[in-house]
Amino acid sequence: MGPLARFVFLYAAMYAAYGVASPFLPALVSSRGIAPEELGLVLGAGTAVRLVSAPLAGRLGDLFGALRTVLVLCIALAAFTTLGYLPAKGFWWFLAISMMQAAALAPIGVLADALTLGAAARARFEYGWVRGTGSGAFIIGTLAAGQAVAVAGLGVIVGLQASLLGLAALTAALVPELPHPSRASASRHRIGELLRLPVYRNLVIVAALVLGSHAMHDSFAMIRWRAAGLSAGVGSLLWSEAVLAEVLVFFFLGPRLVQMLTPAGALALAAVAGMARWAVMATSADVPALALVQPLHGITFALLHLACMRLIGRAVPAGLEGSAQALYGTGIGAAAAIVTFGSGALYGRLGAGGFWLMAGLCAAALPFAWRVARASARSSARH
Predict the structure, then answer these.
(1) What is the mean pLDDT of the chain?
(2) Among 315, 318, 297, CA closest to 246
(3) d(CA 97, CA 3)
(4) Other C-beta atoms within 10 Å of 348: how many?
């Protein structure tokens, strides 16, 4: 089995594990008698832990030249802590389990991405094929879990996620390790080096602004549509349309667009697409208009992520791959957390008009995309 197949199996197991639990876990915790205010604290604490554990795991993987080992340990720990939801009762138990699971889950995606990018460069396959598999597996996992919950109740998601994470840990042990410089050489690399790289620094800002703007959509799109009279079925179709576009861009359209436009051009296109998408969300709840802009998710998320991965693969020095992925993910997570925190008050005061501010975040990303293009040009000229 070649490297591509191994990463495909890894991402399928990882993202199916996310899919079977993510939509249903808040309902499971709530069903055990946790009040909404306490549920918010449980979920918020998990988000805060993620912002710390991912950079730490990435840095440890770089220092010891053992990204794969850290990945396997994190997935195995996540599988074990997931089982803690089975007997959990009471706020403090759920808070502890949520924080431990979040700490283990947060590094998984970034470590897997670092390993995949390295293998893709050596074995000459597209990163998007692997990441697209993950998105497809998430959809399948969510649909399957919905059927399982209808038959066996919410508790079934715990066993499903733990089993899939266990499978992912076994699969992760089979993927190729990223070649690293010697430990002594790697230790000389500091995270500050990443922030001094103009390409890396500016692409993180672009990603934080554009992907952070999605947080209001994720929190309030369904509420906005239901308030406008759209049925739950129509809302589900619109949401599924966006995810399908994401998969298609990862697999087919995205790599070609990044090649044609250059990665910096793809970042700019993602920002412009975000401006258009959120402007429509701010001004219309007509189904035809929404159906036209929902596929822009393939541009605002998948294309942007592909372009960022291409740039990180080129710009980041050996020995900092895990740290670079972790800081990239942390920047996006921090932006999403800030927008999520503020979006409630924003939507309460402005309603759908709050999406204009999300369009503004995407507009603010354009100058930084131009800086990425300029820094990339200078780097190419030197080489």
Answers:
(1) 89
(2) 297
(3) 34
(4) 10
CA distance 133 to 13: 10
Phi, psi of 66 (to 5 degrees): -140, 50
CB atoms within 10 A of CB 240: 13
Spatial separation of the C-alpha atoms in residues 383 and 381, rounded to whole Å: 5
Contacts for 346 with CB less than 8 Å, ≥ 6 apart? 216, 354, 357
Segment 156-172, tens digit of pLDDT: 999 999 999 999 999 99
CATH number of 1-176: 1.20.1250.20
- Sorted by where each begins, the domain ranges of the chain are 1-176, 191-383
Question: What residue ranges in the chain does DSSP mark as E strands?
Answer: none
Place of tokens 């800081």: 327
191-383 carries CATH number 1.20.1250.20: yes
Q: Indicate if 191-383 has the same CATH topology as 1-176.
A: yes
| pLDDT above 70 as % of the chain | 96
Distances (CA, A) of 106 to 58, 59, 71, 116, 345: 10, 13, 10, 17, 27
Structure token pair of residue 54:
């991912």
Q: How far is Cα 301 from Cα 163, in angstroms, rounded to an integer?
A: 29
- Written as six digits, the tokens of 249 are 């861009």
